[in-house]
Amino acid sequence: MTSTPVSRALTVLVVGGGGREHALAWAVRQSPLVDRVICAPGNPGTGLLGENREFAVSDSAGLTALAQAERVDLVILGPDAAVAAGVGDALVAAGIRCFGPGREAGQLESSKIYAKQVMQRAGVSTPAFEVFDDHLEALEHLRRRGAPVVVKADGLALGKGAFVCHTADQAQEAVDFLLRRRELGSAGSRVLIEDCLVGEEASFFAICDGETAVMLPPAHDYKRAFDQDQGGNTGGMGSYAPAPPRGWRALNRRVLQEVVEPTLQEMIRLGAPYRGCLYVGAMLIGQEIQVLEFNARFGDPEIEVQLPLLPDPVPLLWQSAGGHLSDPDPEPRSGACVGVVAAREPYPDAVAPGGQVQGIEEAERLGCQVFQMATRAGPGGGIEVGGGRVLICTALGRDQMAARAKAYSGLAAISFPGMRYRQDIGA
């Protein structure tokens, strides 16, 4: 890509502190267009690539002041909380180029109901649904329609607001969890009850400038905690790209034409043009593409396996943030990338932080790239466990099986107390 007009080496600010942001900082730092990377708040891994600054991802005023003081040329919004807090709006109002949507456009993720309504008006295929804010009305609806169903919290729930319910008892428990017990707080004050589809899940990613978009190689994410898709829903236990290994370019073209472009036009009609990464979570059923959800950001752990496949992503991000994409879809490197997440027991339940993480350097000597997801600096040096999903070990290979073998080989060199991971990622 050569059409990015920059007058000097760029200073880039990545907002966030997880694996997605570590991967973004890693990819950006390799660009010849970038001189300096700042992460806020970052993690021990991003600290090796640039400077970490202690700011909350929702601190619009603080992050804007940081970007101004450090003469930041481009800000990349990582997590959903930054989008929902309107960080992008504050940055744009201050004249700072920002990759990521404002709060209004970000409702495509922060409100499942808003997203469904946009899909309906745009003519995007999506499972039939009903909306409820009353516990008893939702239960009555379940008694009439039966199972299986999917119950979803309307708001942001850190990847834990969707319940695939194969029985009536499971559906009633999900409704009780959200609407009566309010276990997810205001995020679950309204719920969607939608048809449960059976097919192959795939994640598609469009880089949008408000009117047009280009597509990244799609990825497949593993949401369940244990092998063979057993156990609780998680933020993602691993991924691979491209997915499917064959035919993904044709699928990308269809998603662009049938989903992304109509959605962008509807967002323009609503007065909220969408700039940034639009994640399309879809179910492939024969020749049908059914959209399950939108996210207003890069996927995690998908971006950790997409970026190693891509050439320099900075021109694409710069153009998107400036409102004018001029380059074609990026052509990925040949082969595949597989990433396996190492978590601490009893994730997805709450976990206690602490305990040394060892072996990252050895895994990287074996040819892997390790992105830190929930780590912290240890009081006596080194890296400690900071949360449930601790890290993701990724590897490139000539094909998916070769990449998978390398990723698991690297993961075998890593250890921390309570470590576990799925054995079937990319199988």
List the defining traits of the structure above.
Dna Ligase, domain 1; 29% helix; 24 strands; alpha+beta; D-amino Acid Aminotransferase, Chain A, domain 1; 4 domains; 427 residues; Rossmann fold
Textual characterization of the structure:
The protein is 29% helix and 28% strand. With 427 residues, it is an alpha+beta fold. It folds into four domains: 10-99, Rossmann fold (3-Layer(aba) Sandwich), CATH 3.40.50; 128-195, ATP-grasp fold, A domain (Dna Ligase, domain 1); 199-322, D-amino Acid Aminotransferase, Chain A, domain 1 (2-Layer Sandwich), CATH 3.30.470.20; 336-420, Glycinamide Ribonucleotide Synthetase, Chain A, domain 4. The strands form six sheets. Strands 12, 15, 18, 20, 23 and 24 form a six-stranded antiparallel β-sheet that branches. The protein has a five-stranded parallel β-sheet with strand order 3-2-1-4-5, with helices on both faces. Helix 2 packs across helix 4 (87-93), helix 6 packs across helix 9 (248-269) and helix 7 runs antiparallel to helix 8. The longest helix has 22 residues, at 248-269. It is globular, with a radius of gyration of 21 Å. It starts with 9 loop residues before the first strand and ends in a 7-residue tail after the last strand. The mean pLDDT is 94.
What's the quick description here?
This protein is of the alpha+beta class and 427 residues long.
CATH hierarchy class name of the largest domain: Alpha Beta
Gross morphology:
globular
Structural class: alpha+beta
Q: Which strand-content bin applies to the residues?
A: 25-35%
